[in-house]
Request: fold
Amino acid sequence: MNAAPDRVPGPSRPGGRSARVQAAVHRAATELVCELGADRVTMPAVAARAGVNPTTVYRRWGTVAGLLADVALVRHDTDRPPEPTGALDEDLAGYAAWALADFSRPGGIAFFRAEVAPDPDDRRAGLARCLDRCAVRIDALLAKAAERGRVVPTRQQVIDRIIAPLYFRVVFSIPHTDEAYARALAADLLDHPDFRPGRAATG
Amino acid sequence: MNAAPDRVPGPSRPGGRSARVQAAVHRAATELVCELGADRVTMPAVAARAGVNPTTVYRRWGTVAGLLADVALVRHDTDRPPEPTGALDEDLAGYAAWALADFSRPGGIAFFRAEVAPDPDDRRAGLARCLDRCAVRIDALLAKAAERGRVVPTRQQVIDRIIAPLYFRVVFSIPHTDEAYARALAADLLDHPDFRPGRAATG
Reply:
């Protein structure tokens, strides 16, 4: 459950009515974002699609932006990238493939944006949360490989060389942006004398 | 004048009333995008800020999306990247610095998006136009250096390694995204044995 406790009406028992309402509303919001685009989704339309009273949706989520941010949070918590193993090349390629799949699935970019800016008046807060979460995962992956003695790229290099081009390519629907492309971006980043396997970490 | 001739009322003489209206409306739209964000700009607000009758604005530009796309087109035609000289390192660094300045100026990202998708129902058309225009400029820069015998990166490498990270960093307000950073992205792309100066082009 991602909603703050004081915003959850009804029973808090997992699997209860509250959880069913959340699941139905999240599913309806996702479908409508895919069908109409995030800009055209309204709270009454989500309520109608979910078969839920609009008052319930307004009371629990407040605004469309708040609802999409909640969907994004739940997605982010339930759909995680592969656990890093310490094998840098495969971990980074797997992370790139996962990030592309995350952006590419229905509504992916809309939810990524919503997560970054759940509230237009509090953009920095959402941004900081999102970057923190991305950073934690990238850092964990790099730390695991570094423990094994690999010289690893920086978090910023992973963002510039893998995340940013995948984001740009999905946003602008550039053809041939597939899993092989994502993995190649990871391989390309590591195709540098500094990162060759067997090179001992220094400093 | 970027508006289609059949949509321009009044005199077509450059410097005439029509041009003054266009300039005032474009300036008002830019200011409001910066102050409110593109999602909150309305045609009546633009008209009021520009001191123009709302009917004129609706008749000439139709929708906010159409107006922002027109502003983007004019910006794109009047604010061009530096002419390539054939010196690859400086040309690419200069292009990167220009692209960052273009994204970073007030409303830059909003107008870039509007240009890519001037009409939500015709996203592909705007996208194709924008990528074509970017591609033409990048290709010209690379061709000029290739004429001088340099082995040059591909257009796609320039997009993935320079344009995409700058776009991502501006969209998500990542700190320290300045001209030096943009130039370093260009230098980093060319920091590969394939692209060292003096290496003869093959094939």
